[in-house]
């Protein structure tokens, strides 16, 4: 529960608790907080058990952690029945991204992957200090009646 709290932070919290509540009331506050946490956990567990009972026997192995999208996807990727491992292993993201980059820059993907020519001086970056090129008269004529 407190995996992200370091020792210095824990000491700071304790010192603040002593300053806010005082050394006389601090043990009672800690007991009240622990009692509240215990009741919340009991309520949560009873709600989970009620839901499992209402779902019926076909959902007896249902885990609420499966509702987390990351957990669900991780379990589905590890599932051998769907064949997703072969799809994931057959997909080369670096190659796909290189092809997309080459297509955007107007280069031939086979020529750029086989040749060992150095990259352009700009590194494929757009120079923002230059003014954009004038498109010339390539624009279609403006029709006032059409708008």
From TrEMBL:
Membrane as UniProt keyword: yes
Cellular localization per UniProt: Cell membrane; Membrane
Principal location class: membrane
Region Disordered: start-end pairs: 101-147
UniProt cross-references to HAMAP family, sorted A to Z: TatB
Function description: Part of the twin-arginine translocation (Tat) system that transports large folded proteins containing a characteristic twin-arginine motif in their signal peptide across membranes. Together with TatC, TatB is part of a receptor directly interacting with Tat signal peptides. TatB may form an oligomeric binding site that transiently accommodates folded Tat precursor proteins before their translocation.
Similarity comment: Belongs to the TatB family.
Protein name (Swiss-Prot/TrEMBL): Sec-independent protein translocase protein TatB
Gene behind this protein: tatB
């Amino acid at each position: 529960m407190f995996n992200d709290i370091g020792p210095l932070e824990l000491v700071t919290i304790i010192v603040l608790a002593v300053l806010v509540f005082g050394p006389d009331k601090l043990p009672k506050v800690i007991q009240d907080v622990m009692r509240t946490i215990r009741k919340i956990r009991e309520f949560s567990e009873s709600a989970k058990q009620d839901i499992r009972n209402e779902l019926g026997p076909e959902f007896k192995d249902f885990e609420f952690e499966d509702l987390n999208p990351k957990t669900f996807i991780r379990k589905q990727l590890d599932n051998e029945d769907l064949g997703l491992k072969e799809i994931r292993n057959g997909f080369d993201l670096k190659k796909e991204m290189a092809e997309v980059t080459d297509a955007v820059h107007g280069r031939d993907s086979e020529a750029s992957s086989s040749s060992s020519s150095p990259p352009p001086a700009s590194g494929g970056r757009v120079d923002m200090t230059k003014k954009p090129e004038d498109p010339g008269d390539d624009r279609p004529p403006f029709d006032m009646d059409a708008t």
